[in-house]
Amino acid sequence: MKESDSHAQELLSQYRFLLPVYTQMADVIPGRLKEFFKEAGIIVAAIECRVKTEASLCGKLELKGAKYRDLFDLTDILGLRVITFYIDDVDKVASVLERLFEIDWENSVDKRKAHEIDSFGYLSLHYICRIPESAYSDPAHPELNKIRFEVQMRTVLQHAWANMYHDTGYKSGVEIPKEYLRNLNRLAGMLELADEQFSVIRTEINDYRRKVQGLVASGKLEEVALDGDTFRSYLQLGPFDKLTRRIAAVNQAEIQDMSLMSWLPVFKGLGLKTLGDIDRLIKDYGEAAYQIACYQIGLTDLDIVSASIAPQNLCIAFALKSGGGKAGIKYILDLLGGESDANELMADMLMEQAKDLPFMNQ
Fold first, then answer.
1. Quick count: other Cβ atoms within 10 Å of Cβ 188?
2. CA gap 162, 164 in Å, rounded
């Protein structure tokens, strides 16, 4: 930079003086964003932050230094980028920024409104922000609430394409041959479609989950196919609780709570297709499961039983009453914890315990 460019030199002096403030902001802002995103239930792929180096600022001032009255006119010395997984999360991130910061709407840009064929990687939403004193202040550095900074928001795929295009295009310093540029634009179109479809699929899955929750809550279990989402919603109703409490009452035992999601592959392995099938299993085999439990713990001083005892004995009762015998019990144990010789020994023991129970002689 020319020594005669006194205005640019003054801006650089301001930069050196304010650099600790910019560094402090770079330390504080990402953390605050993470807190607000967590409160809003927004999961982002990354939050990037950088303070422009003096060398980079010199290059900018050589080209455009005359347009800035002072350093506060530069809005990109501190820059952040929030990278989301989904297109519709960009607007959610923007909503958080609007609540946390003061937005300079006149200088903020929504590049998503661009329609050029090669614009995909640059469809970011750019906000120029300022930290209000009500959100964060430091009496030692009042400039902190005067400095404006830029936050770019875009998706993972937009970010990946922009980086790739920048590396292959601009950094080479030469014009890209048309055949390569065409391939880049084709790729941009594919990625843009993928970006849109990820959001569409997520919306459809969320709609499905809400529909399932409604069917489960209304008791229309025959209409609900058995899968991970539906079984999780079903468990929230506590379908095994009544049987578990009845079993625990045999010894006045405490019930040890645990997740019952591990029983999903067992129920599916037994051929159950809907939540209604599990409901019938509980009704049809609940008494037999209770008899098995009474034999297991009735003559013991066991004072804690696992919440899994109900589905376990229901499945054992199903295997025994349907003629599966020892092989059927071992199959259940293998589904639950993987194949092992111990499962065969356990199956032998359970067969011995159950042979004299009333339900086996009906």
1. 23
2. 5
DSSP letter at 264?
H
C-beta separation of 261 from 231 below 8 A: yes
Q: Characterise 130 by phi-psi region: left (phi > 0), alpha (psi -120 to 50), beta (else).
A: beta
Tell me the two tokens of residue 26: 């770079």
pLDDT tens for residues 213-245? 888 888 899 989 999 999 999 999 999 999 999
Beta bridge partner(s), residue 268: none
What percentage of the chain reaches a pLDDT higher than 70? Answer: 92
- What are 247's two structure tokens? 């079993």
**Beta-strand relationship, 102-103 and 44-51:** unpaired
CA atoms within 13 A on the CB side of 227: 9
Count the residues in the chain.
Answer: 362
* Domains, in order of start, for the chain: 6-172 (3.30.460.10), 238-361 (no CATH)
Q: d(Cα 348, Cα 359) in Å, to the nearest integer? A: 18
**DSSP per residue, 233-256:** HHHTT-TTHHHHHHHHTTTTPEEE
118 has a pLDDT exceeding 60: no
DSSP 27-63: HHHHHHHHHHHHHHT--EEEEEEEE--HHHHHHHHHH
Task: For residue 334, give the amino acid letter.
Answer: D
Q: What is the pLDDT of residues 306-356, one digit of tens each?
A: 999 999 999 999 998 888 888 998 999 999 888 888 988 988 888 887 777
Instruction: State both tokens at 46.
Output: 């990354």
Going through the chain in order, the beta strands assigned E by DSSP cover 44-51, 78-84, 102-103, 109-110, 125-130, 148-155, 254-256, 304-306
